[in-house]
Amino acid sequence: MSKVVQIVGHRGSGYETIPNSMISFYRAVELCLDYVEFDVWLTSDGVPVIIHDNDVSVTTNGTGYIEQMTFYDVSNLKLRDDSHVPSLEKIIKLLKPTNVGLHIELKGLNTVKFVLKLLLDHNITNRVIISSFHHKLIKEINSFRTRESPRSRADRRSPRTALSYTEAPGDFVHTIKEYGAVQIDVCNEYLNEQLVNTAHKNGFTVMCWYNYTYSETKDDLEYAISLGVDAICTNHPKLLLDIINCH
To answer: What is the separation, in whole angstroms, between the first and last Cα of the chain?
Structure first.
């Protein structure tokens, strides 16, 4: 783990490779990142897969919607590098023998029980953060966790959870407590010293993230570090590594 801030590769390894592709995760392992962030949707037959958009035409050679396609159909789609859309289980098997953690962003509304089952089956929940912009999914995870493993929040079977925000978070302390999360994932546009201090004062960690369409600079990354964020989800993991190595 890095000393200054945890490095989270956006959609695998950011701009270095095709996002959410197998090569992007191999590159993240090669860089020894702390975490990889990726998006999960559910196929019509209940298989969690790694892809950013429900509309497959955005990132693949196909047409249609993930939630209306079987895993067989999705697995035959090709990304821009001619590789196939990976399943969550494939990524778990790749990362489990490494020190790279999983930051799973739930996109599909019916993903919770299928994702948690895989994590529990592979005994990897202690290396996982689950986030979503659909905050009710985080409440569902924590409700499920309480039913299945009621011992404590630190239970090894319990993945940590985060609430993600694309807009100014407002009274996020109340919301995070209500939903049982431990981290706020905030877009860099709304990152400031007061937010970080308030989160830390209340025992929450903070991850700053950048839109995939925004190519953050060295100054952007150093600013986030200066505010004391706990993790940065970056499109430029190698640049962030270089910055940290200079501290």
So the answer is: 15
Rounded Cα gap, residues 159 and 170, in angstroms: 25
Query: Can you tell me the distance from the alpha carbon of 146 to that of 126, in angstroms, rounded to the nearest whole number?
Result: 15
pLDDT for 125-144, tens place per residue? 999 999 999 999 999 998 87
Is the pLDDT at 65 greater than 60, yes or no? Answer: yes
The structural domains of the chain, with segments of one domain joined by +, span 6-246
- Rounded CA-CA distance 198/107 in Å is 27
pTM, entire model: 0.93
CATH node for 6-246: 3.20.20.190
State residue 144's pLDDT score: 74
What contacts 24+ positions apart, CB below 8 Å, involve 189-193? 190/165, 191/224, 191/227, 191/229, 192/227, 193/227
Q: Structure tokens of 42?
A: 């559910």
Q: Longest Cα pair distance anywhere in the chain, in angstroms?
A: 48
Burial 106-122 (b: 16+ CB within 10 A, else e): bbbeebbebbbebbeee
Cβ–Cβ contacts within 10 Å for residue 159, how many?
Answer: 22
Answer yes or no: is pLDDT of 1 > 60.
no
Handedness of CA 80, 84, 89, 92 (dihedral sign): negative
CA–CA–CA angle 67, 68, 69 (5° rounding): 95
- How far is the C-alpha of 150 from the C-alpha of 158, rounded, in Å? 10
14 in the Ramachandran plot: left (φ > 0), alpha (ψ -120 to 50) or beta? left
Give the amino acid at 31: L
